[in-house]
Task: structure prediction
Amino acid sequence: MNDMNMEKKGEAQAAAQPQAAQPKAAPAAAPAAARPAAAAPAQPAKNQIEPECVAPEALRERMETLKNKEGYDFLENLTGFDWEADGLGVVYQLASTADPSRRVNLKTLTTDRENPYLPSVADLWDIANIYEREVYDFFGIRFTGHPDMRRIFMREDWVGYPMRKDDETEKNNPLRMTPEPLSDFTETYTLQSDGTVTKSQRRLFEEDEYVVNIGPQHPSTHGVLHFRVSLEGEKIKKIDPVLGYIHRGVEKISEKMTYPQTLALTDRLDYLGAMQNRHALCMCIEQAMGVEVSDRVKVIRTIMDELQRIDSHILFFSCLCQDLGATTAFLYGFRDREQILDIFEETCGGRLILNYNTIGGVMADIHPNFQKRVKAFIPYMRKNIKEYHDIFTGNVIFQNRAKGVGVLTKEQCISFGCTGGTGRAAGWHNDVRKLRPYAAYDRVQFNEVVRSEGDSFARYMIRLDEILESLNIIEQLIDNIPEGNFQEKMKPIIKVPEGLYYSAVEGSRGEFGVLLESKGDKSPYRLHYRSTGLPLVAVMDTACRDNMIADLITIGGTVDYVVPDIDR
Amino acid sequence: MAINKRPKIKSIPYEEFKDNETFERLVAELNAKGTNVIVRKLDELIDWGRSNSLWPLTFATSCCGIEFMAVCAARYDIARFGFEVTRNSPRQADVILVSGTITTKMAPVLRRLYDQMADPKYVVAVGGCAVSGGPFTKSYHVVNGVDNIIPVDVYVPGCPPRPESFLYGMMQLQRKVKVENFFGTTNRKEKDPYRDTMAEKAEEIYNEEEQA
Result:
């Protein structure tokens, strides 16, 4: 307590300067034709990536070599870009799970804006199927060889491609109140040997298939998610997720905002990982600008991230219990969650949407009561975890519904890019905190909780065990918050030097990444978030096949997706 | 007999409510034609019951939904006011709490949910997104305020609103319910302007032909 009071004096001056200037930054400016080069740091930024350009014709061959011979089995990110005059393109970020230090970035592009075609990699990595549909939806790039080239977020009667820089989205798309058309057919584009592209149609669901719609308004889909489930008796044959009911166009509106303004939207993506999301974006911008935050900020951010993780996992527990009919457990979970929200509220002022991190630090110093309350919370929570196990884990109904149900193998998780607890339940070591330590994670001792079963029960246990690990991390740091500024002094208008940057943090449910392309302006040229939830929804088809329809709820609950994060 | 201008909400004095002007205007409107003594007494009894058992539909699209869950849980305990019976089917619900952003893809779905609810029904717009589009006003895929799609009774601002504001908004709705003329008005709502009159006419013609 004493050192904190001493520090207050020095910080009062530091606090006054940077905050005042940021919100006043001028509103969106159209990207100018000639851009003045921003003051580039002497060395390339820590998180800068320089993708190697591959011609579309050579892409397939290169990708097959990387996947099959060189062991790049994890497609971390596949992002569409509109480089205006340079063409439309895609950036691929690959990593090797055997040796996490090996990462490779590729890009490919086409200059044809009318009929852009690129080769698909959907047969190499399962997750590319969904990612390429997203790119098609946003940019209109058709992938040849993709088995299911449909829109994914927008309605099927949507006109134009919203993320293109020259698209007149609002003009072409008035509010349509007619029921949404959902086609039973999907298209495949095939590249012939003479260079032409042919289109073929395929049925998604046969005429005599029994298809049940779950969602978009359903209490157990955890938001507005729509599954078209094909059934054989009570067994699930196939799931076709229909997304976009909460697609808010975050990536597009960020392009017209200044950097400090874009921060506000991150909290609202995955609201149960508000701290971590914002941490990722702040870290990305800071590293790109070459700003080093103080040790104090690093430690505060780490503690806050872990508190947020506990908060999210408690909510996971509560909702899963609620879905399975255990209302008491829901109330127990929320009782404990309120304790964390109180801690957040004192320091950040918000309960759910916290708006705490900022470029160069955090918005305000921690509250004088912070340490005391966190220290009281740690033993309290440890005691209550035992209570959770007593009340729910041992329950025979739950055990029967979770053990051996919805099994995902390690290979499937990697191919679908299911990071976080879902991947770790299948034995995949994917914790970004361990692989590429950021903030203060390099100075704490903690275990990466990994199991091997890959079923619903393992996914459930992982999260409860992670609460204990997070408590360990907090316990190590809470007494050792170093002195220093809680915010670096930043320029009133923040400009990121030209380049492509990627930073990732371990979110509450997996790797949350930020891919930022800057042209040296005060707004991002393209800002892409690696959604933690999109792979988790993509894997639902694989996880649920041949399981009972009632288990869809358990599997969906334990996979733990948050829908606004999927749709962005 | 006139409608009581100051319906009682336990523990909160009338003056402490905000926007009493709108409320008084509403009461004056209802009082314009006067009310029957016996019917009004019955109205009061029924409205008392209705206002203390408003069943919300579990409808949440984003962040505000989590706060709604917090309101339902032990600390804020929505059951104190009779709102705890959350219904999963719109046909059993009295009030829809639109908590979260409504996108253009979701708009027809919300409209259908609203149409499926039985009269008398109420709408509370919870959070900045439902009120006006919130931080996503400039987005190409967001409806700027649910009042573009369905009529809203109470607006609860905030991003997300604190649980206290949730409860306050629900109490405002209770006040509104408490002054309504139930018999002859609320229980016999105006014809739905969205009803498919063409289909009904076709049906009438068909019935007449049948009889002939």
